[in-house]
Amino acid sequence: MIGSDFAELQLFITGPILLRKEVREAGLLPEFGHRDSENVKRFGPIMENLRKLSGAPEDYDIIIFNGSGTNVLEASVRSLVASDDTVLNVSVGAFGDLYHKLAVTNGKNAVQLKFDYGRAIDLDKLEQALEEYSPDVVTFTQNETSTGVFNNVPEVCALIHKYGAKSLVDAVSIFGGAPSCIAEAKPMMYSTSTQKSLGLPAGFGIAFVSPEGFEKAEKVENRGYTTDILAQVEKARNLQTLTTPNGTLVNQMCVQLDYIVNDETIEKRFARHEEMREMAHEWVEQMDGYSLFAQEGYRSPSVSAVQTAPGMTVEKLKQVKEAMRGHGYLFDPGYGKINKELEASGRQPIFRIGHMADISPEMLKKYLEILSGVLKDIN
Prior knowledge:
Blueprint: E1 10-11, H1 21-26, H2 37-54, E2 61-66, H3 69-80, E3 86-91, H4 94-105, E4 109-114, H5 123-133, E5 137-141, E6 143-144, E7 149-150, H6 153-162, E8 166-170, H7 182-185, E9 189-193, E10 204-209, H8 211-217, H9 229-236, H10 247-264, H11 266-286, E11 291-292, E12 303-307, H12 314-326, E13 329-330, H13 336-344, E14 350-354, H14 361-378
Parallel strand pairs: 1-13, 3-4, 3-5, 5-8, 8-9
Antiparallel strand pairs: 2-10, 6-7, 9-10, 11-12, 12-14
Helix pairs in contact: 2-10, 5-6, 10-11, 11-14, 12-14
């Protein structure tokens, strides 16, 4: 029988994530026509609850894209960076680098400001780059999944706007786990997706686009089709998607957002993520030789990156992963590219703890207790 040997693991990776029982069951709800009135029954509450969860002003449009968060990031590049623009891609890790790659591969005039792994955006260095390059658009990551760094969106956006540039924010791994700060920061476009802190399967990207974003897009050529926010927003304003959506995921999204907003409540969800961040930090402090990788004061509520003790290697982290599998967990041995670079430079590799979406403090406590023993046995 297909699937009979599929492992039922608790996912403590950084996405995809563990799904609530009710979300999995929502996948069995009826399919529907995406141009039918049944569609509105789903997308009406979805859009309403996304607005509440984001705190986005009413003049921001919400667009749901088919695909992953990367699709939305590419849409922001295709729709909002003109051929004669300079775009500054600010990176604190692998996904900041991805934003730069998207700009380059789409033929944009892109320059990059990179910070050391584990470091947050330094506003003084950002200001120097703004003065040097005079960019029209600046991209950066709110929550860097690869390193556990959490940048201050309002501060960064304020500095970008001071120099007359427009801001594009990658919030793929944090939306649903912490405040978006859209109303305060006023980015031109704020992008996220379903498979991280929202507690849903992968399949949709989500964008919050300001009025100035649409004004800018009208002046940009070659926006593509599915990456064209002007084409997308026409359908979004009618509570639809541009192309055929995954109906199963729509049903799950409707159920999950209702739970987040009306059952758990937004305030309690954000507080739970903060509690789990503190739990992870306290655990690391008790582990001899281990340390938090992200800069103090800029550590993510949804993922903690841990620098390993002397003697631990990338190969040993793979052994930890298999040992934790035996306990019923999927362990995250760190972002491959970064760990290779860390080891090559003589630094200890990192692993990550995903404490996002619907993982509870009780679940995290048990996971960390078991992980402590496995790490000691293997190292």
